Amino acid sequence: TLDDYVYLEHGAHYAIGALAVILLVTIQYEISEIVTGLIGVVLIGSSFLSSVRRNRALAAAS
């Protein structure tokens, strides 16, 4: 799967980094679980869509 969706792994790493930052911020401020979940979903979803666009562009160029 990671060979087909090359940006998916990067998106997962970005999501983990964002969750780590959110964890540090929650020491001082209250952050809703919905916001935390949506940030992860948006990062992984956008990396998936970027991978799909890349695959389509490569298929069209072939």
Determine the N-to-C terminus distance.
21 Å
Kindly report the average pLDDT value. Answer: 94
Q: Please report the number of helical segments.
A: 2
| Strand residues, percent | under 5%
Number of domains: 1
Q: Mind describing the biggest β-sheet? A: none
Which stretches of 5+ consecutive residues score pLDDT under 50?
none
Query: Considering DSSP H and I runs of 4 or more, what fraction of the residues is helical?
Result: over 70%
Number of DSSP strand runs: 0
Q: State Rg.
A: 15 Å
> What's the order of the H and E elements?
HH
Q: Shape from CA axes?
A: elongated
Which structural category do the helix and sheet elements fall into?
A: mainly alpha
Describe this structure in words.
The protein has helices spanning 8-25, 33-61. It has 62 residues and is mainly α. It has one domain. Helix 1 (8-25) runs antiparallel to helix 2 (33-61). The longest helix has 29 residues, at 33-61. It is elongated. The mean pLDDT is 94.
